[in-house]
Amino acid sequence: MTEETPSKRPRSSKDVPYELIYWPGLPGRGEFIRLVLEEAGAAYTDTAQLPDGGGAASVLPYIQGALPPASDPSNTPLFAPPILKHGDDLVLNQTPNILLYLGLRHGLVPGLHNDPDAQFRVNALALTALDGLCNEPHDCHHPIATGLYYEDQKAESQRRAEDFVKERLPKFLGYFERVLGSAASGKEDTPWLYGGELSYADLVLFQCIDGVKFMFPKAMAKLDREGKCTRVLALYEAVKERPRIKAYLGSERRQKYSNGIYRYYEELDLEG
Amino acid sequence: MTEETPSKRPRSSKDVPYELIYWPGLPGRGEFIRLVLEEAGAAYTDTAQLPDGGGAASVLPYIQGALPPASDPSNTPLFAPPILKHGDDLVLNQTPNILLYLGLRHGLVPGLHNDPDAQFRVNALALTALDGLCNEPHDCHHPIATGLYYEDQKAESQRRAEDFVKERLPKFLGYFERVLGSAASGKEDTPWLYGGELSYADLVLFQCIDGVKFMFPKAMAKLDREGKCTRVLALYEAVKERPRIKAYLGSERRQKYSNGIYRYYEELDLEG
């Protein structure tokens, strides 16, 4: 803030812990945010950790209209979780948006100090991973309506999953293989997507691959055997070995998959 | 660039026209980019305007692997159009990513000079409009596979469109009505989503509404009669009256809807 903008009240310090507001009981889209917070070593609270399903009660006020009273009136109403609250100033939603905010703040956009456009390259990678390897897997069990049960759209799910493992999954993995083999990804001996250093897009792709391996183990095993995702799987293993990520994955904070985005249904576990 | 970063070569000037690289023959996702460029009064070329379908030949090299040789090696391979090229330095894809890049450059993020977080609020609004009122309408005619014809997924499309007009469309419109009624949208007599001034999210919402009105005229008419989208439609009309947008919409550069995201199928034109 400068003296030239007296109309806007001083903003509170951002040196406060983050609050992640998300449904309890499943990793969901909240998991992409958690991985970035964990890798950054950031202090945060997580409504998913509240006892007795209290997390749901934390989410609802945000998406049912009214924002909590402490919020800056510049904050718009929110559509859906994950939601990130940071101090009294900022309440954000939209997964790729929160990821960009955190990535810029926590040094997870390689090369940004030399090239401010780096953020748009990393943002595009994260958006593409979320489109193809999070939203599309979700639609494999909910191709008709998010408001219906899977059991009410099983036949359509079967068709969609067949197309996903045969066409879409190889296409998206092939894209990330090309990215990982490109000059933009850095030297050959670094496993990361951009600039030879870990970016938040790597964490997003890690979580996508983890979920897809859980949901479609046969298809992923086949693509691995065929050498179609060698670099992507090397990135996946490299993320797992990051000390803070490794500690997180071994902790109770890491939730098991259940009825969220990535689900295991035997009839959808196709080889492709 | 500063002297402290000699390893990176000097970047070329950004005072060059933009190039929009997109499929010819349909407005598609390219249209969101065009509206921002038009409102900004930016100089740009558009492969959709190339004669004899030459636009398709312009798109393919970008998404089939190799980037054109003039590009900065920091650019990653691209997944899909729309693609924005800016000078020799930058080639970007992902619609919301290009929109953010342009919005920041062209003063289409209200209040940014006072509050750098404004960009994340506007980005979230644009992402939510694209999710609910662009991607979901697309999936109403392609719920199973983008690689199949509509005719091969008609029954599933019928179910998906029924859910969309009944559940999803009112939900997303209701959300934007709440945003438009919030303090964050500015004074009551301004029609915009954020900060009392036009943002690129307004242009995104305009195009979404234009497409949804084309695809689902009965549902939109009903929601209008019921007063469920009064503020959204006021925003829609206000965007239409922006001088540069008005000139653009009246020009031959504005393409007609065809076999793209927003399509008219009588059997999907449900009232909800």
UniProtKB/TrEMBL annotation, chains A, B:
UniProt-listed Pfam families: GST_C_3 (PF14497)
Highest taxon of the lineage: Eukaryota
Organism of derivation: Schizothecium vesticola
Name of the protein: Glutathione S-transferase
Database matches in SUPFAM superfamilies: GST C-terminal domain-like, Thioredoxin-like
PROSITE patterns linked: GST_CTER, GST_NTER
A GO MF term: glutathione transferase activity
Xref: Gene3D superfamilies: 1.20.1050.10, Glutaredoxin (3.40.30.10)
Span of domain GST C-terminal: 115-258
Single GO BP term: glutathione metabolic process
Domain GST N-terminal, residue spans: 17-110
